[in-house]
Design goal:
The protein is α+β, with helices and mostly antiparallel strands. It folds into three domains: 2-172 and 187-217, 4-Layer Sandwich (Glutamine Phosphoribosylpyrophosphate, subunit 1, domain 1); 234-371 and 476-552, HUPs (Rossmann fold); 562-630, no CATH class. Helix content is 43%, strand content 16%. It is built from 28 helices and 19 strands. It has a six-stranded antiparallel beta sheet with strand order 2-3-1-9-8-10. It has a six-stranded antiparallel beta sheet with strand order 4-5-6-7-11-12, covered by helices on one side. A five-stranded parallel beta sheet has the order 15-14-13-16-17, sandwiched between helices. It is globular and about 75 Å long.
């Protein structure tokens, strides 16, 4: 795994070194830059495949006609290399996937995307046509940002490297802030800054003559097609899923450096660990963390799974004090406000894992593909409650607010309030509101009149409507899954995993997001994903005879931390510092009296406003790091 940066247009070598220097942690083994004509390319390398100096980047073709900077892994590069060798045109100098990828471009151009199995974000500069190609993998596992200013296109793995280029300015995007307050992250393709964008998953961009000439998808999940497995029994479907997952894990065990597996105790990571051990001659290294707060702790289940499948297990406890110490270590590194607190345990897990291995496999993607979140159970009640008159729903909302607040993980009062919160907007938006923080009605009270006047995207939920339209004639359940795939997976889960891993120079691979696995699961009917109140039905069926019942039969717990409790105790001072009257009023974005009421209700124990207060506090911390003096 690596960090990449570059430009096409104005700039020099010092700009490249400054850009790549901001993300040096993504690749501590080597930094390389190249400036030739209008093309500037930079790379920070974490050595995984072919550890030789010849595989360093930027990497040039043999004839010098093209150069590449590449972040990711192409798992089928051996087969692709054999196909290229048969043409008789290529003499390979390395045994790495980077060279294969560049040769594929020279041979096939953008037609190469259908051949790739892997995770990637890369830039290829073609000196023949003086054009720059940027591309991102189908699931969006690897990040890529870009900005076009004054005829110069600047790109990088992270936002901080883009804004390090002198042609790129930092100006807060009010519409992106509006979205962040609802989603807890800024959804693609926007970023928190104006005129800087995220390249969308499964898309490529071609820049030439000072303009973006092409921007289009090369792959798309078609949720509207007839189910290709209709008539396939659950047993046969489970067997096929097992074969695909087995192959996906086996491909991701390819590495020239030590490798392990994240093992939380949930069914997703446990399944990956099981298949990894099946394909390994010696005990696989597995890693997990536990929590002192028992309602958040799954470490006993992780140990049970490790013992059951025979892995070499490593585990540490993340204490409240250590978590609090990690916050100032993590937050300043985040380029955009990101209010998913589970980045803290994910970061800690990555940190302890990196002391043993350089690559780790995880279970990410399963929940979004197989409807694994509690929100999909809530969706079962949606039609029933949709028939309730709105005045009665408001009354139910007031009753929910009267429930005693609890600090426990996914407590009853939290679930009730989040469920009722979803009915404050259009039914198509309920899942976003269930997962997120501020509803449109709340934001009307939160924003000052001056801030509201600068916002052009109304309630910040228009992107959901766009994705529902993209899903075409798919059923309502499939449309929900598509929205999760395009939003929560790509802009929350995969961002959290990428940053947590890369901040610790750890590569994290996701077998569930192998294209073959994704396309097969997508072809399944809804009843194979959720049956009654059983989520991830087919995966549980597959793993029932492979894992302990404590794993396959229990409800999802998540990877949370006791933020609610901390905001009343250890984090109270930090919250008061960043959400002070002086700071909020001086900034002019938010109504302080609304925030003051949130704080009072939370500190008194009357309400649990952890999501709202954490969201605001993270934004203010981000402002201090990125907008100081602006």
């Amino acid at each position: 795994m690596c960090g990449i940066a570059g430009f096409s247009g104005k700039g020099d070598e010092s700009d490249l070194r400054r850009m790549i220097g901001t993300i040096a942690y993504r690749g501590p083994d080597y930094q390389g830059v190249s400036h030739r004509g209008d093309a500037g390319l930079a790379h920070a390398r974490l050595k995984i495949i072919d550890l030789s100096l010849e595989a360093n980047q930027p990497f040039f073709s043999g004839d010098g006609s093209a150069a590449i900077v590449f972040n990711g892994e192409i798992y089928n590069y051996h087969e692709l290399k054999q196909g290229l060798l048969k043409t008789g045109k290529y003499n390979f100098r390395t045994s790495c996937d980077t060279e294969v990828l560049l040769c594929l471009y020279l041979e096939y151009g953008t037609a190469m995307f259908s051949m790739l199995s892997g995770m990637f974000a890369f830039g290829i500069y073609d000196f023949r046509s003086k054009s720059l190609l940027l591309a991102k993998d189908p699931a969006g596992k690897k990040p890529l940002y870009y900005s076009l200013a004054g005829g110069t296109l600047v790109f990088a793995s992270e936002l901080k490297a883009v804004i390090a280029h002198p042609s790129v300015s930092k100006e807060l995007n009010p519409d992106a802030l509006n979205e962040y307050l609802t989603y807890d992250y800024v959804p693609t393709p926007s970023t928190i800054f104006k005129n800087i964008y995220k390249l969308e998953a499964s898309h490529y961009l071609i820049f030439r003559d000072g303009k973006i000439m092409e921007y289009k998808p090369y792959w798309k999940l078609n949720y509207g097609r007839p189910h290709s497995v209709d008539g396939l029994s659950p047993d046969t479907a489970a067997e096929k899923l097992g074969g695909l997952l087995d192959a996906a894990v086996r491909r991701r065990l390819m590495s020239d450096v030590p490798l392990g597996v994240f093992l939380s105790g949930g069914i997703d990571s446990s399944a990956v660990a099981w298949y990894a051990q099946k394909n390994s001659a010696s005990p696989v290294k597995t890693f997990s963390i536990g929590f002192s707060e028992k309602s958040y702790d799954e470490s006993d289940i992780a140990r049970l799974v490790a013992s059951h499948i025979g892995t070499e297990h490593h585990q540490e406890i993340l204490s409240a004090q250590h978590s609090l110490e990690l916050i100032p270590e993590i937050i300043p590194k985040l380029d955009e406000p990101f209010a998913d607190p589970s980045i803290i345990p994910t970061y800690f897990l990555s940190k302890i894992t990196r002391t043993h291995v350089t690559v780790a496999l995880g279970g990410d993607g399963s929940d979004e593909l197989l409807a694994g979140y509690p929100t999909f159970i809530s969706n079962r009640f949606l039609n029933l409650f949709s028939a309730v008159p709105k005045p009665l729903m408001r009354l139910l909302g007031h009753c929910g607010n009267m429930l005693p607040a609890s600090d426990k993980n996914i407590s009853f009062d939290f679930k009730v309030r989040q469920f009722l919160k979803g009915f404050e907007s259009d039914k198509n938006d309920v899942h976003t509101l269930w997962l997120g923080s501020f509803t449109p009605a709340m934001k009307q009270q939160l924003f000052t009149s001056g801030a509201l006047a600068r916002i052009t995207n109304d309630n910040g939920l228009q992107r959901i409507a766009e994705y529902l339209k993209e899903a075409g004639d798919a059923g309502s359940f499939e449309k929900i899954l598509y929205v999760y795939f395009r939003t929560y997976l790509q802009d929350d889960i995969l961002v959290k995993v990428d940053r947590s891993g890369m901040y610790n120079s750890l590569e994290i691979r996701a077998p569930f997001l192998d294209r073959t696995v994704v396309e097969f699961i997508n072809s399944l009917p809804a009843s194979y994903k959720i049956r009654g109140f059983t989520v991830k039905y087919l995966l549980k069926k597959l793993m029932r005879d492979k894992l302990p019942a404590q794993v396959t039969e229990r409800a999802k717990k998540g990877f949370g931390i006791p933020v609610s409790l901390w905001l009343r105790n250890e984090l109270k001072g930090t919250m008061e510092q960043y959400l002070s009257e002086d700071k909020i009023k001086k900034q002019g974005l938010f109504n302080y009296f609304y925030i003051e009421n949130l704080k009072k209700e939370h500190l008194s124990g009357k309400r649990n406003h952890r999501k709202l207060l954490w969201n605001l506090m993270i934004f203010e911390m981000w402002c201090e790091n990125y907008l100081k003096g602006s």
